[in-house]
Design a protein that fits this description.
This protein is an alpha/beta fold. Helix content is about 20%, strand content about 30%. The protein has a 6-stranded mixed beta barrel. The radius of gyration is 18 Å and the shape is globular.
């Protein structure tokens, strides 16, 4: 028996909707390690997912799941340098990356030359 076209279409739509939705998590106790990258001049002035313009000189970051406005401490595990950033965008859009930092944040972490760094991310309570 062949599935009816409307059933297949509904199943496909449900699958795509599930993949497209973002899953926002509770930041309390968030503590993860992974790879950070940064974005700068090419995106400067463009709207972030939160609606504000991206400022490569600000201390902000993109994260897939943390709520906008969450402040996190990011520590470069290679050199021990840390910076506090505010989540204001969604990303990173590259597989295997945990967070995208503004250029200013990446500079404070000492990762401009390498472009990426292994980091620890800890949510801060306000």
């Amino acid at each position: 028996m062949t599935p009816r076209p409307w059933f297949v279409a509904c199943a496909l739509l449900a699958l795509l909707t599930g993949c497209a939705s973002s899953h926002i998590i509770d930041p309390r106790g968030y503590d993860q390690t992974g790879t950070a990258s940064y974005y700068g001049a090419r995106h400067h002035g463009k709207r972030t997912a939160s609606g504000e313009p991206f400022d490569q000189n600000g201390l902000t970051a993109a994260h897939r799941e943390l709520p906008f406005g969450t402040r996190v401490q990011v520590t470069n595990q290679g050199n021990g340098k840390s910076v506090v950033v505010r989540i204001n965008d969604r990303g990173p859009h590259t597989r295997g990356r945990l967070i995208d930092l503004s250029r200013a944040a990446a500079q404070q972490l000492g990762m401009l030359r390498s472009g990426t760094a292994k980091v620890r991310i800890q949510a801060l309570s306000d």
